[in-house]
Fold:
Amino acid sequence: MSSSRTELVDVTMPQMGVSVAEGTVVQWRKQVGDQIQADETICEISTDKIDTEVPAPAGGVVAEILVPLEATVAVGVVLARIAPEGAVAASPGPGAPATAGGAAAATNGNSAGAAVAPAVNGAPAPAASTGATGVPRRYSPVVQRIAAAHGIDLERVTGTGRDGRVRKQDVLAFVEAEGATESAAATAPEPPLHIESPYRPDPAAVADGGQLSRMRRQIGEHMKRSLDTAAHCTTWIEVDMSAVEGARAPLGLTALAFVARATTLALREHSSLNAWLEGERYTRHDAVNLGIAVSLGENGLIVPVLKDAHELSVEGLGVRIKDLARRARAGELSPDEVREGTFTITNPGQYGSIMATPIINQPQVGILDLEAVTKRPVVITDAAGNDAIAIRPMTILGLSWDHRALDGAIAAQFLAAVKRHLEAWTAV
Amino acid sequence: MPTLTYLQAISSALRDELRADDRVLVMGEDIGVFGGAFKVTDGFVEEFGTDRVMDTPLAESAIIGTAVGAAVVGMRPVCEMQFADFIACGFDQLVNVAAKMYYRQGLAVPITVRLPSGGGFSGGPFHSQNPEAWFMQSPGIKVLAPATAEDAKGLLHAAIRDPNPVCFMEHKHLYRRIKGEVPAGVYETPMTARVARQGSDLVVIAYGAMVHVALEATEDLDSASVQVLDLRSLVPLDNEAILAAVAECSKVVILDEANTTCAAGAQVAALIAERGFEDLDGPVIRVSTPDVPIPFSPPLEQVVLPSVERVKEACRELLAY
Structure:
């Protein structure tokens, strides 16, 4: 810690996982002069794949911002300094514009030669986030629930309770006055698990002509780099899911968990697909670290990795997939949870699509695509050799593989193994 | 409808049941010739005879034990404890024998134990207790606690006709103080809570005599809209009615006359913490009797029992929160 004034508390670029060395500031939530509570988010940072929030190590007033927006700095670098509650305000300098209601807390803007011009990125921070007495505002469960249901920013609600506390009546009156509508978030359906495909039409330009989000840009870079790197080839196989459909309902699992289990077993038999190809270095893995593509809606997607998936039963896989997907959508994954995948499964079948040509997640050499399971008439042959047409739940599994690492026969053998495990499903 | 006191309503229910059903009998100390310590069964022995209005020895275990045996062979006994406090002597027969008979042997034990309970009249530590929570902790027993004359009659009918052992907590301070219109004839009051007064800013949850304290304390409390929920039945506890009141008001004062620890109100508070959390706009406040014996001394007793003033103070605190 190298604060120029001992009373200031440093906010540093956090270590976000053992292998992360640097991070980029993507948003400042607070500006110089703003009040901040301990553990409140001061800024958002982005590492290789994970966007996360940096909590304030202490409450007080933001005294200095040392790293400008979009700057990438090493772990441990001081991003900002906070004057703790009760500390004497720092020496006067060029005054920052007084924040509404926060005049008493106004600190100097750019002191100690800090090289940042705050408040350039749009909306100013919300007005003082404290009650009438300066005590940080806390909200009761019912107030938070009503606010969430109506998409209300509680900082805008005037409290009439003790010490300016926002009461249920206050938030209800606010709802009535604002005529606030139900937030989309409250009614939005669960986003499905799936991976974006480059073969889909480009999204139509949005009316405001805004730039692609950081996540979209990164996905784009990764996908293009993969297409430029690997010799992509896609092989499909039809699978009768009758056995899986029968086993799935009592366990309360999705077909994805079964496909993940069958894939894991097949990868153990065909380790040439459970591998990395980095330049000319080809590494086969014994352990299966299974990546599962999770859609984050329009924002993009992320591929959390189930480490040592081969040690998990189908029930275990189901639970872990659900947990990773939930945490991925909540932005709670750590960088280490999206690393070291050895194979990836993508599952966009909820909407009835039947085939895709997924792009390999580098440096892996294969990606399996699970689409919709649909009932079809198929020819079946009984033990005596008699043919009949039956209605069966069928799916088409697609495997994109890297022709640099392997050939089509291996890919087909692998798919046949997955098919075999799924069609002759017995709990393993 | 005739206007009856709480005590007359209880007498009326007993008399109606004795007339309607030969299997019903009442038993207790001095309930026959003397008519009962509180005169609930005054005149009963003349109408129904000593076989059905039985004076018993001073032995609560014998009263309840006899009732259990009679119930098992098909009778519907109603036992009177002279004071609720005395049931401690019959505890084993009630919580171990009666309560678990159906679970162990599949035999119904349709007995009703009337428990004149509560303080407020300088009865001291042996004649003022509210032991309802003892029985709430004993699966197999229902626990009822009416606040009004109408409910006292209706719930006593429901208790006598119920196939389970029922502790009927009748608050003796209400016996002659509370009057109300009571429907004639037999009717059963459901074992659910009752909204004693509508309101939306805060709810006071109470039962028995405390319902009246709650109503008086909040009748005109700084023009706030205060709901009073009368639980009426503690087992079964009307969880949905409690949670509905919490959802509507978001602020809760729980009032009971029993000693604080593990009282009925503690169960209500636990329910709200577990299932009503997202509806709360303030801490759940309990007003109850501290964990001390009930004093003889009138001024001390008034300090110990929840008073109108204490309830007002708690409500004002919470309304301002």
